[in-house]
Amino acid sequence: MSTHVRLVLHLLLLFIFAVQEVRLVCVDVPSETEATVGGVMKLTCIYCMKREEISAKTKVDWFYNGSASDYRRMLIYQYDHEPQEPEDAEMYWKGRLTWNGSKDLQDISISIVNVSASDSGTYECEVSRFFEFDSFKHTTNKKITIELKVKMQASVDTTALYSKIMMYVLLVFLTFWLLVEMIYCYRKISKSEELAQDTAKKTRRSPNFSIEYSISESLNIIEIHQPKNKLSLFICLTSFQTCMVSFFNLSSKTHL
User: Fold this and answer.
1) Distances (CA, A) of 149 to 60, 120, 165, 235
2) Using a CB cutoff of 8 Å and minimum separation of 24, what contacts does 170-173 make?
3) pTM for this structure?
4) Which residues cross the membrane (predicted)?
5) CA pair distance 73, 90, nearest whole angstrom
6) Is residue 98 a contact partner of residue 29, using CB atoms and an 8 Å limit?
7) Is the separation of the CB atoms in 125 and 62 below 8 Å?
8) Cβ distance 139 to 129 under 8 Å?
9) pLDDT tens, residue by residue, 140-197
10) pLDDT of residue 18
């Protein structure tokens, strides 16, 4: 008993020291460049910090430069201690921009609400980080440019369409394979039960063994096969049911 207790304690200590703190990983991804009239468009701006344990003051300025034919640089949104609209921002932008960044200020994106056709143009995200150390100060800057095009209707994403088709094909194939596997398991279980019964009958008829030994041996054969057979059938049915549930869930999500 003491050996089992020691083993459990050792495993608990190993688990406690092995588990580490889980942190989100910052990935620099480009922003989407196509929006639809009347929708919500996220202008993605990500500036990952290489050393997250070092704190820094972050300042973000979002500019709209208009189109190539109508260049006009204007400050439309900023982050300085908190997300805010500039006081001198045009009425066109007021109430249409929302902060969509993260708490650690690695994701400093904004979203345009109720996109209109005149929102097409060039957007710039200018980020400044101010680091303060004991002996010196350091500043880093980054600028991300986004060329936004607004369309009346959303274009068909061929990649998503092909992925959806391949997912349906894969689910149909897995369903068919599990159905065949279930039939195979059922036949295998039936044959093993028939073999166990035949073995028990032959053992009873054999004159070389006593009746008590024959009965006990037959029961042992049946007991050996029955749990395995039930477990195999249960695994097959569970796998088939899981596949069918996944298929119907995907179908319902696709039609929504």
Assistant:
1) 23, 5, 28, 52
2) 171/243, 171/246, 171/247, 171/250, 172/247
3) 0.55
4) 165-186
5) 12
6) no
7) yes
8) yes
9) 999 999 999 999 876 666 777 788 888 888 888 878 887 887 787 778 777 777 777 7
10) 43
